[in-house]
Amino acid sequence: MNHEALINKHDPIEILLAEDDADDSLFFSEALAQIPVLTNLTVVNDGVEAINYINNPSSTKPHIIFLDLNMPKMKGLDCLEQIRKNKLYNETPCVIITTSASPNDISKSYSNGANLYFAKPVSMIDLVRMIDKALRVNWKHFFPPFEDTFFVTERRI
């Protein structure tokens, strides 16, 4: 796969968001709408739905996946691990977006194959910036291997 900034490569950018909180999903969708790029957003409510989505041959393959860590049925870390085991998705950029700023969660996320880790911002402006940053990353510097990669952890107060 030739990785580069998604915002320059795909039209539209296919985005999968795994988020169990309806308000956070709406917040994400509204922030995404403020970025001047064509996107298709698919929202699933938990890790099981995310895995079912990517394993469904009729599903559109996302160019990037955003995962919450704290979801019912299957946690984000377990979901991420399953995504990385799937040969079709082992190089799909995965961004953790969660309320946890725990060093342990951050470390485990990167160990399981996360490309970026963001603490959920509280303002719309910060969420727009976070999503925009993820869409503008030059992903060729992130694959492979994960452990030799520079990662961004951002928390704005």
Automatic annotation (TrEMBL):
The keyword Iron does not apply. The modification 4-aspartylphosphate is found at D68. Residues 14-135 form the Response regulatory domain. Keywords: Phosphoprotein. One of its GO terms (biological process) is phosphorelay signal transduction system. This is Response regulator. It comes from Emticicia agri.
